[in-house]
């Protein structure tokens, strides 16, 4: 309660430098904080209440990504020197509700499900899936097509439908663009 | 709490819903509350994720779109989230309405993307209910459960685990415990 009180009396934090591609959707209620550059690609959707924190490193998000509400992108506390490169999210990545992503890289077409957690400096390959409540440790390297599920179980899924999945994410962003009012000027 | 909010935390509507001022409800016009429902602080309800795929039933009224429908005496604890599920159907993506019946309790921090939740369902804390899950009447979901997408949970079952499995059955005598009228009365501004 006391922390809330303090926040209300403090002057508004300075906006982080941003680089927005055209035709992205960023909801009014999204929170962008920090001092490093946040760049977001074409057709990416940032849901309301998503939190992007660039205090400890830059954040780069590719095109056609979906960042859901309550997810936290960027380092949550100071990193050690070995992983200070920031967070890089490739194209077509879906970050679901409440996920915490501190990864150095999240590969193309990956899905991070509800309340999953990716530790600092971890590298997630292309077309991976991190199941609900699953955790990737700091510095871990996960190969392409890996699926993390249940209580730390892993398997490789080469169903060969990556292109279709990417297409589906594309369709989803198209629809979300109609549903979520965008206000990029607020953050620029 | 050190500070007493000037107006009281809850807004009470005509139908007796108690909605926290600190809840984060998006798309209010697309949400139906049946009455006597409690929504605590930091609850997110995504009413903006509407159905975009045209309904196959032409008799259905086109007037007001509904994203989230909630019955009577439901209780949504602090920090939980209700989100209509979405899927690709016949080549186009659409969200579909999330329907919740009466006397449904959702614990703190749980995220619900179900298609349908029946009456007298008790969902614990930090539960994840996957997309298009269907939960029938009188179900208890224990804390930390992950209900996978498209799972159908039959009536009178107790569910736990990641992914969720049926671990028990609700006995005849336990049904009384699902009534949320007491919980509703306990919440208020006084």
UniProtKB/TrEMBL annotation, chain A:
Keywords per UniProt: Cytoplasm, Cytoskeleton
Q: What family, per the record?
A: Belongs to the dynactin subunits 5/6 family. Dynactin subunit 6 subfamily.
> What task does this protein carry out?
Part of the dynactin complex that activates the molecular motor dynein for ultra-processive transport along microtubules.
Q: What is this protein called?
A: Dynactin subunit 6
Instruction: Give any single GO term for biological process.
Output: mitotic spindle organization
InterPro entries given in the database record: DCTN6, Trimer_LpxA-like_sf
What GO CC annotations are associated with the protein? dynactin complex
Q: Which Gene Ontology molecular-function terms are recorded?
A: dynein complex binding
- The reply on keyword Cytoplasm is yes
Among PANTHER family, the record links this protein to: DYNACTIN 6, DYNACTIN SUBUNIT 6
Per UniProt, subcellular location reads as: Cytoplasm, Cytoskeleton
TrEMBL record, chain B:
User: What does the UniProt keyword field contain?
Assistant: Cytoplasm, Cytoskeleton
Q: Where in the cell is it found?
A: Cytoplasm, Cytoskeleton
| Coiled coil regions, renumbered to chain | none
Instruction: Tell me one Pfam family matched here.
Output: DCTN5
- Major localization class: cytoplasm
Q: Under the cellular component aspect of Gene Ontology, which terms does the record hold?
A: dynactin complex
Q: Which family does it belong to?
A: Belongs to the dynactin subunits 5/6 family. Dynactin subunit 5 subfamily.
Database matches in PANTHER family = DYNACTIN SUBUNIT 5
What is the official name of this protein in its record?
Answer: Dynactin subunit 5
Q: Give the species this sequence originates from.
A: Oidiodendron maius (strain Zn)
């Amino acid at each position: 309660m006391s922390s809330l009180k303090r926040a209300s009396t403090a002057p508004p934090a300075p906006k982080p430098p941003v680089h927005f591609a055209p035709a992205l959707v960023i909801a009014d209620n999204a929170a962008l904080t920090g001092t490093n550059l946040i760049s977001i690609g074409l057709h990416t959707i940032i849901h309301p209440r998503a939190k992007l924190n660039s205090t400890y490193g830059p954040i780069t998000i590719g095109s056609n990504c979906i960042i859901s509400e309550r997810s936290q992108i960027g380092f949550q506390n100071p990193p050690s020197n070995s992983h200070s490169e920031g967070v890089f999210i490739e194209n077509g990545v879906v970050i679901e509700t409440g996920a915490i992503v501190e990864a150095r890289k999240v590969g193309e077409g990956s899905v991070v499900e509800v309340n999953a957690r990716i530790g600092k400096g971890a590298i997630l390959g292309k077309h991976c899936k991190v199941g609900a409540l699953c955790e990737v440790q700091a510095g871990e390297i996960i190969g392409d097509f890996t699926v993390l599920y249940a209580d730390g179980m892993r398997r490789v899924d080469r169903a060969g439908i990556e292109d279709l999945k990417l297409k589906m994410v594309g369709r989803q962003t198209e629809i979300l663009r109609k549903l979520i009012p965008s206000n990029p000027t607020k953050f620029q | 709490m050190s500070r007493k909010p000037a107006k009281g935390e809850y807004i009470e509507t005509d139908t007796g819903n108690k909605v926290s001022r600190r809840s984060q409800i998006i798309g209010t016009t697309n949400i139906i509350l049946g009455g006597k429902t409690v929504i605590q602080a930091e609850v997110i309800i995504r009413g903006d994720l509407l159905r975009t795929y045209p309904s196959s039933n032409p008799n259905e009224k086109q007037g007001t779109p509904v994203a989230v429908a909630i019955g009577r005496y439901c209780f949504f604890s602090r920090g939980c989230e209700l989100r209509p599920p979405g899927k690709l159907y016949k080549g186009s993506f659409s969200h579909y309405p999330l329907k919740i019946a009466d006397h449904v309790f959702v614990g703190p921090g749980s995220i619900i993307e179900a298609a349908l939740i029946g009456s007298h369902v008790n969902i614990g804390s930090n539960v994840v209910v996957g997309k298009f899950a269907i939960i029938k009447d009188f179900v208890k979901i224990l804390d930390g459960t992950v209900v996978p997408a498209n799972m159908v949970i039959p009536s009178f079952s107790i569910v736990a685990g990641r992914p969720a499995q049926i671990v028990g059955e609700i006995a005849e005598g336990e049904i009384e415990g699902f009534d949320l009228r007491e919980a509703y009365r306990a919440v208020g501004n006084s």
